[in-house]
Amino acid sequence: MKKNEKYEVGFLGYGRMAQAISEGLDRQGRIPYARQAASDLPGGEWLEMAGERQFHPAPNNQVLAALCPVVIVAVKPQQVRAVLEEIRPAAPGRLFISIAAGLKTADLRAELPKTAGLVRVLPNLPALVGRGMSLMCAPPGTPRKHLDQARSIFEAVGEVEELEEDKFDAGTAVSGSGPAYFFLMMEAMIRGAVRLGLTWETARKLVLETALGSAEAARAKPDLNLAALRDQVTSPGGTTAEALQVMEMGGFSGLLAEALEAAAEKGRRLV
User: How does DSSP assign 105-163, residue by residue?
Assistant: First the structure.
């Protein structure tokens, strides 16, 4: 950051994901609100949040880009090209980090001057609670410092994985869409538990805590594959074995693999 630059990061669009990133940066002390700026639609609720959080509300997108050396493009995908065209005069020398789904680095690069840096990041929904899994890539020749800057920002809301862009569709099918798969499974487990006689409140607590604990156990045992962990729960001829047999007879594993393939294929077709 140069001495004459008051703000370190700016948000083009201040919706839910931008708000989460902004909050994470302040909470962890990486970039406090006082060194953040944002722009969005005139008269929106985001202006109230600017007053509460004390970040700078830029009067328009071009001013925002001129104020900040790092700009996070957080508008809706269909708005990105128009917004980048609007701020183009202020773009030289800035680093742009796009979180727009479906827009590849080549699409974004075409809208920016050559001297502007570019990194593409796809965070997922758990970033809203600081437990996100963000995918990151950049055009060939991008300086390492730009990737490091982007990583530092998104590590404020979870983990970051650098991938080649041609792997992004596969990665998005797992981490981007993945929360919905887990929500569906947890919802089905809760309904099943209620049918067995548990209250909804008890069923929900048992399912959510079991899901969270299972993920933490898997993270804590990187030397064990998931099959080995599953075997620790599954006694021969026991209740877990009976349940797993029903799942496999219903094609659970194969169906999930097909779902990921469908999600990745859809991602390849997105504009």
Answer: HHHHHTTS-TTSEEEEEE--GGGGGT-EEEEEE--TT--HHHHHHHHHHHGGGEEEEE-
